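go over whats below:
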Amino acid sequence: MAAPVKLMPQRAPFRILVSAVLSTRTQDPVTAAAAARLFEVARAPRDLARLSPARIQKLIFPVGFYRTKAKLLPLLAGMLVERWHGEVPRTMPDLLELPGVGRKVANIVLSQGFGLPAIAVDTHVQRLSNRLDLVRTSRPIDTERRLTEILPRRTWKDWNRLLVALGQTICRPRQPLCSACPLAALCPKRGVSGSR
């Protein structure tokens, strides 16, 4: 008997989508603060579609590329309202039609917003997957494809979260803390020239 499907809160996919767009080229604490300010004013796609880019800029500053994101977000929200009746689509092709949404953001929405199997490849996933010698790729799309071939499908949605946590704290780009790494015994340390 299959496990029951856990339903996500109604607004969770929308919040995850907007937060993921904000997170591009931005550190997590900055993203969280900006998203909180924005969601105080825009709780649903209709609210966000009505905001001016100038207002959004003030709410999301200092996220990376805040001016560009402030222009894209009301367009994204408008598309959600017009094409999907205010709901976030749950397929990769539909998500990729939204302004500011690439494969990484779409995979985050699919995995975290809907609980679907998807692997979001960011800089941490790219670096650690290569460092662990699971892949030998330089492009995120190639990393995503290769990981979907070798990882069990049930683990896909957790891969990004786990590797981001490890990449931010221990397996950093320069001088990773290999002595504190829970994967040290398994890791070939590919590309690591010095560690602590």
Remarks:
- The mean pLDDT is 93.
- The two ends are 47 Å apart (CA to CA).
